[in-house]
């Protein structure tokens, strides 16, 4: 899911989109958190925001990640081409970079659905310090 927000002064409204990657034949996930931060983030209290917010280290349990730098379609993906040849339908590859993970998915179809306006996204707000 992507919860898209903007500065309220912009006049843009918030929206929440659900992305469903269909017939996903490959999913790779790599951390983007540096080793020195991992070393400081092994305390189990960092698994939830409530117990980890005041500790040093990366709080893993925030229920969301910043979608930055974002998603990029991998054009002419050899992996997607191999799957297309083997299965007989088109496949695509996307790289999704967040503040904590680098994801790569190989899939055949993508369904995007806008969720009702009452769905407000992440269940809490992070304090700005």
TrEMBL record:
<protein>
    <recommendedName>
        <fullName>YxiG-like domain-containing protein</fullName>
    </recommendedName>
</protein>
<dbReference type="InterPro" id="IPR058188">
    <property type="entry name" value="YxiG-like"/>
</dbReference>
<feature type="domain" description="YxiG-like">
    <location>
        <begin position="2"/>
        <end position="118"/>
    </location>
</feature>
<dbReference type="Pfam" id="PF24712">
    <property type="entry name" value="YxiG_2"/>
</dbReference>
């Amino acid at each position: 899911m992507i919860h898209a927000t903007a500065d309220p002064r912009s006049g843009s409204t918030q929206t929440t989109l659900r992305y469903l990657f269909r017939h996903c034949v490959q999913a790779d996930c790599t951390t983007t958190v540096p080793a020195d931060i991992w070393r400081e983030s092994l305390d189990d209290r960092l698994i939830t925001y409530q117990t980890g917010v005041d500790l040093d280290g990366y709080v893993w349990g925030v229920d969301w990640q910043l979608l930055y730098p974002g998603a990029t379609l991998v054009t002419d993906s050899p992996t997607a081409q191999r799957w297309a040849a083997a299965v007989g339908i088109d496949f695509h590859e996307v790289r999704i970079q967040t503040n904590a993970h680098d994801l790569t998915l190989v899939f055949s179809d993508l369904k995007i659905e806008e969720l009702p306006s009452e769905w407000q996204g992440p269940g809490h707000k992070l304090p700005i310090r």
